[in-house]
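Lecture notes, unit on protein representations.

Consider one protein chain, 253 amino acids long.
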Amino acid sequence: MIGATHYSLSDPDKDRNLLISILETSDSSRDARVLTSLGSSDRALSLVTVKNEFVRCVYRDISSWYDYFFGPTLHGARLAAMPRLPIESGDKVLEVGVGTGINALLYPEYCDVTGIDFSSSMLRKAGRRLRQRGVRNVDLLKMDAANLEFEDNSFDFVYAPFVISVVPDPVKVIKEMHRVCRVGGHVVVLNHFLSKNRFLACAERLISPLTVYIGFKADVDLACFIAQSGFRPVSVERVSVPKLWSLLTFQKQ
C-alpha cells in the first residue's frame, strides 16, 4: 500500500531553506508569489505515499499504545501552541485529527469544539477520555479530513495538530480546512516538517518509509506544502523545545 515518489532538483534543499527563511522572517505584506517562485509548486511533499486504508490500519494497531508514546512526546508542542491560537469567546472550533482526545482537553470552555478523526479506535479512546474528564464542549465525529462533511464557512477556527504528516493528501486537507472556515476566521496547522539542516533532512527522508508504520511521514516539505496549498500563512513559528514543530497560522480572506 505504500509507494515512494522521488523528485530531483538542482539544489532542492537550498531552494526550500531559502523559502522557509523568507516565511519565518518576512512580514505579511511580502508578495505571496514568492511561494511559487522557487520550484516548490511541482515537487512531491514527501518521498512516501500512503492510502487511507493503510492509515486506518496503522492507527487501529497503534491506538492501544499511542498515548504512552505520543502523549508525552508531543505534549510540549501542544501546550506551547495552545496560547498562540486565536480562539475567541463563542467561537465554533473544528479540530481535524482529534485522535485520542489529548488536545481536546486543552480548549477553553468558552468555545464549542467539534473533533473529527478517521480512526474509530482513536475516537473511542477520545470519547472515554472526555467523559472521564467531564468535558462538555467537545463533540466527536468520524470523518475523512480530505472530505469534510460540513457546509462552507461553518467554523470560526479550524485546527490540525499533528495531522499533515499523517494524511495521504495534505494539500487537499488544508484546502478543505479553508473551505469550512468562515471568511476572517483562522486555519492553523501544528506539525513537524522536513528539517532545514541538510544532514537531518537526509536522515528524515531515509526513515520516512519506516515511520509511516507508527503513524507519520518524517519528511513532509514545508515549502512545498505552502506553495501547493495556494494559501499564504500570516505567520510561521517554531514552538516547543527542541523546536521540532512548526505552527502555521492562516486567515481566510
